[in-house]
Amino acid sequence: MKIGILCYPTYGGSGIVATELGMSLANKGFEVHFISSALPARLDITNPNIFFHKVNVQTYPLFEYQPYDIALSSMIYRVVNLYKLDILHAHYAIPYAYAAFMAKQMLKEEGKDIPLVTTLHGTDITLVGQHPSYKHAVEFSINQSDTVTSVSESLKADTLKFFNIKKEIQVITNFIDNSEFDDCHDCSRSQFANEDEKILIHVSNLRPVKRVSEVLQIFKNVNARVKSKLIIIGEGPEMEKITQFLEENPELIGKIRLLGKVNDLYRILQLSDVFLLPSEQESFGLAALEAMAANTPVISSNAGGIPEVNIQGETGFLAEIGNVEAMSNYTIKLLSDEKLLAQMKINAKQQAIKFDLKNILPIYEEMYERTLKNFKSLD
Ligand code: GMT
After folding, report:
1. pTM of whole model > 0.90?
2. Alpha carbons 365 and 371: distance in angstroms, whole number
């Protein structure tokens, strides 16, 4: 089967899921074509079954805004024609599902067609997709897709609540390849903390929904009671708030390490004691699952789909969105009790194994087969 994957190339969760899915399919012999504005961050282009097609936006002085969506739909149309793709898979409704619909219309003009799968990831539904500028285009794109999947039950419920959806939505949860988290022999905690210190970690694109200020406040509360260090991985608009926090709390400067974007994320997660995720919205919380796969328990808010991933009192603790005090107290409780911490590290890994790639990939394969079969029977 030849699959066209349309996704954001950046470090955001939707791009990571699309890339990991495409690479796993390629390893199983599928021919996978990525169409995006840049090479996706984690894509292994050396795999002979993987192709990358960069969307080129021809700039023109008349355009106040360069028309990426038009260039994208034209590129989808050309790749489908050139490589005879069987199926398209859009990750994130806008612009990917929307542009794929336009490409399908172009193909139809020539008596051709191709089935479209759209995977909803979160902010396309709960945040940006809600805005009147995009809402109807998102709803239209979902209803025009042949198959629609969502990464959690919570996101499916939100989609049905906020939009007039005429399609069945299949929940296919995000996944993790636990084999990439084999025991880390060269992980050295001493790079980041002294022997008597615990390591807290936060990984995100530092956007406002991640509530980075709360990560910092939780750390401040915890650090007053438990010797500790905080590692922050990622880059984004809330970076300024971190600098401001350090200016206001200079005593914490040596205790907070900002690493930006890193390549050896899994190695650093493996030497951490607790992952903080106080998000305002989170359709799934892939970052929390990555932490759990690295034996790291999670202290989080109960936003969106997080409770489907982080289980209260088992793999970590959850509190209401914004309840910094509760999240701080939970973290102190966890880090002050070696027995509890050791048990939760084991539980976190066991939970990650439930979301293993081996369990989720066959569900995607079955979904592609079914979509193709239903599509052909409509011919
Ligand atoms: O969370 C982000 O800021 C990135 C965002 C994205 O669209 O790339 O992530 C969303 O998709 C991920 C993969 O399915 C989910 O794990 C995240 O929870 C979801 N983010 C939100 O809903 C805020």
Report:
1. yes
2. 10
